[in-house]
Amino acid sequence: MRFKWFPKQISKSISILSLTLLFFNCNQAQEPMNYNKLTPEEQRVILNKGTERPFSGKFEHHEETGTYTCKQCDAPLYRSGDKFDAQCGWPSFDDEIPGAVKRVTDSDGSRTEILCSNCGGHLGHVFLGEGFTSKNTRHCVNSISLNFEPVEINMEKAIFASGCFWGVEYQLQKVDGVISTSVGYTGGFLPNPTYKQVCTGTTGHAEAVEVVFDPKKVSYETLTRLFFETHDPTQIDGQGPDIGTQYRSEIFYLSNDQKATAEKLIKLLEDKGLDVATALTPAVEFFHGEDYHQDYYIKSGGTPYCHAYTKRF
Ligand SMILES: [Zn+2]
Fold first, then answer.
1. What percent of the chain stands above pLDDT 90?
2. How far is ligand 1, taken at its centre, from the CA of residue 31, in Å?
3. Residue 173, Cβ neighbours under 10 Å: how many?
């Protein structure tokens, strides 16, 4: 893990490169070479961060049940259940599909711009604290950045920690039925930690991966089996060459069903003689990691130095 923190200049280049190459991280979205062709007006908004005229977009008063997807890459972005009427002239949502939308400071220095996490296409801006709904959040999105599919996406979330999050994400994001993945930090006490802070081993956080998946296509048990089969669950406070509590093996469960599934699999491994060190902990806040850690092996083209598959069940 020694080389994971890049000098500022290099990480900045990677982050620009990731937007330039429009990297691929979502099974349901298209690969960059297959992105949908955009009209000049769509390009003005989606690529050049323009804004459509208020009260002119086709989704402002759209009320069908389904999923709003990215015009450029088809990634699912918003659910109709999170749409509300802010009477502002653009479609508004108080939540996004987990991991689907990226927030960055706008070039005006004050507003927060929202982008499709998959392709980097401009969506609009997000505003907090306006009191429209209980979530106190308004994603103000250009209709022209969206398509609509009359299909409801059923999603579940899982959080796994098993050493260097690059490799954990690499293994999980390949699974059919995984909608999105994000590497980050959880389980500690320091809010909004940076990679460098977590590296000190004093924040209590583990490097972890948040997985959003469609339970109709892949079960939590399948993902948890893969988690156990792509790291050494008997190693305490480390994984492979990475030593420290931030590299511990831990499942952060989000429901009693997830907890029961994990307990069942741990028991199966213990019955096979493994001294499982994996901790089982209720999920707490997940802090997304820095851009240059996301989709690391997709961007670098490499393969994990640990996290190879080993059949254990
Ligand atoms: Zn997109």
1. 74
2. 10
3. 22
pLDDT single digits (tens) 152-175: 877 888 999 999 999 999 999 999
* Residues tagged active-site: 140, 164
- Mapped onto helix, strand or coil, the DSSP state of residue 44 is helix
What is the chain's mean pLDDT, rounded?
Answer: 88
Q: Label residue 2 by pLDDT band (50, 70, 90).
A: very low
The total of structural domains in the chain comes to 2
Residue with tokens 């994000």: 182
**Residues having C-beta closer than 5 Å to ion ligand 1:** 70, 72-73, 75, 116, 118-119, 121
User: Which of 123, 149, 175 is a domain's end point?
Assistant: 149
pLDDT in tens, 109-121: 999 999 998 899 9
The residue to which tokens 């000098």 are assigned: 7
CB count within 10 Å of CB 67 equals 20
Environment class of 48 (CB within 10 Å of its CB; exposed 0-12, middle 13-18, buried 19+): exposed
The answer to whether the beta carbons of residues 93 and 141 sit under 8 Å apart is yes
CA 75 to centroid of ligand 1, rounded, Å: 5
Amino acid 117: pLDDT: 87
Q: For residue 112, report the distance from its CA to the centre of ligand 1, in Å.
A: 18
Residues 299, 304: Cα–Cα separation, whole Å: 13
Helix (H) or strand (E) segment spanning residue 40: helix 40-46
In a domain, 15, yes or no: no
Residue 54 CB contacts under 8 Å (≥ 6 apart), including other chains:
88, 89, 90
Tokens of 198: 């977590």
Q: How far is the CA of 116 from the centre of ligand 1 (A)?
A: 5
Cα 215 to averaged position of ligand 1 atoms, centre (Å): 23
Please give the pLDDT value at position 28.
53
Query: Which CATH number fits the domain that encloses residue 103?
Result: 2.170.150.20
CATH number, residue 180: 3.30.1060.10
pTM beyond 0.85, yes or no:
no
pLDDT of residue 186: 96
